[in-house]
Amino acid sequence: MSDESCIFCRIARGEIPCRKVYEDEAVIAFHDIHPAAPVHLLLVPKRHVESLQTVESGDGELLGKMLLLAPHLAREHGADDGFRITINNGPGGGQEVFHLHMHLLGGPRPWKRGL
Ligand code: 5GP
Ligand code: ZN
Fold first, then answer.
1. What domains does the chain contain, in order, with CATH numbers?
2. I want to staple 46 with a disulfide (CB 3.0 to 4.6 A). Which of 12, 14, 30, 41 is the partner?
3. Is-catalytic flag, 101?
4. What are 55-110's pLDDT values in tens digits?
5. Which of 33, 40, 52, 98 is the best mutation target for the ligand 1 pocket, counting ligand atoms within 8 Å of the beta carbon and taking the most?
């Protein structure tokens, strides 16, 4: 998957619209187009990283930044009593978009699917 055709690279470049909730120089976060829970955000590095299967030790800061962002976004979107972070990696892990992303799920249950 090239950066040209990658859907999350295109969203990060502003070529495809999204319901953006956060952006800085390294990370963008937006609502999942098919929410599986009342709060369902995707936290995405702007740089094309395929999955945790391909991260390198130098990506630690980026990954830490994304995890540290999660509780702030959860609170901002009303997931006050807790949230779930899911990262699907590779076809065997159920990954469908091969640009690393964290699902942030929260809000009143029941949720549509477990993810
Ligand atoms: P994965 O299965 O790769 O972990 O999750 C990919 C997620 O991306 C899915 O939950 C899917 O609904 C979401 N998604 C796919 N295409 C788009 C899109 O164009 N915009 C947004 N906002 N979400 C998308
Ligand atoms: Zn990409």
1. 7-106 (3.30.428.10)
2. 12
3. yes
4. 999 999 999 999 999 999 999 999 989 999 999 999 999 999 999 999 999 999 99
5. 33
pTM confidence score:
0.97
Picking from 57, 60, 74, 72, the residue whose alpha carbon sits closest to that of residue 26 is 60
For ligand 1, atom 13, name the residue with the nearest CA.
Answer: 32
By residue count, the chain amounts to: 115
Residue 89 CB coordination number (10 Å): 16
> 45: phi > 0 → left, psi -120 to 50 → alpha, else beta; which?
beta
C-beta 88 within 6 A of ligand 1: yes
d(CA 54, CA 89): 10
Catalytic residue among 40, 77, 101, 103: 101
C-alpha radius of gyration, the chain, whole number: 14
